[in-house]
Design brief:
Strand content: 35-45%
Oligomer: single chain
Number of helices: 0
Distance between the termini: 43 Å
Largest sheet: 3 strands, antiparallel
Order of helices and strands: EEE
Radius of gyration: 18 Å
Shape: flat
Structural class: mainly beta
Length: about 50
Amino acid sequence: MLEAQNTRGRRRVMVGVVTSDKRSKTRTVVIPRLVKHPKYGKYIRRSTTCHV
């Protein structure tokens, strides 16, 4: 029998800005992105906050 190999693609690398380092082990990073409005087509700035 043939065994199926699970191959994962390359992981996506995100670039963000550290906004807070007040905690001892955790940093807060904001990752900005541009999203196109579905109706009007204008690009809107959105951001995701991650605790790393």
